[in-house]
Amino acid sequence: MARWYRDGEGYPRFSDSDELVHRWKAEKRLGRPLIDGEVVHHKNRCKTDYSDDNLWVFKNQSKHDRTHRSDKERYGFW
Hints:
The chain is α+β, with helices and mostly antiparallel strands.
């Protein structure tokens, strides 16, 4: 089993490659590598929950930011 550590921003990364676990999981779910610019979002905001049903892939950072803005209006935090 691959080992991981939490980076300075709290995201799990594989120890052997420094790859972000949630991006790796998203690629496995999609069956393809992520395209440049695609952003993986944690629906429940928990950076260590990289279960398939918690990850949402956005085409770009702008679309991802829109979700955070609407969450801020809804929940009071970015």
